[in-house]
Amino acid sequence: MAPRSRLTYQTEQLIAEVKKYPCLYQVHHPHYMNMTLNYKCWREISKKLNRETSVLKKDWRTLLDCYRQVLITKGTKKRQTWLNLWRFEKHMMFVNR
């Protein structure tokens, strides 16, 4: 088995860190719209991953968009193509809960 790429590792780290802060992704969370808390959470993630907050937010938005596209294509013939191309679906399943 080939070692994971650095990008894959960073993406998995980002997903794992965001998962710790439901207020960033659960729209029904009581603090979802709390911008102060949102800012603090992203700052913590930024410190842990040693990356710029703006870059992390952009990467997270891209991950969410890709995940939503995978969900939309479920049940279509395109689904298998998406699953073969996008390896983070299982990592992102917590977003639906």
From TrEMBL:
Q: Please give the biological process terms from Gene Ontology that the record holds.
A: regulation of transcription by RNA polymerase II
State the InterPro entries in the record: MADF-dom (IPR006578), TF_Adf1 (IPR039353)
- What are the record's GO terms for cellular component? nucleus; transcription regulator complex
Q: Where is the MADF domain?
A: 13-97
Q: Which domain of life is it from?
A: Eukaryota
SMART domains with a match to the protein in the record: MADF
| UniProt name for this protein | MADF domain-containing protein
| Organism, as annotated | Trichonephila inaurata madagascariensis
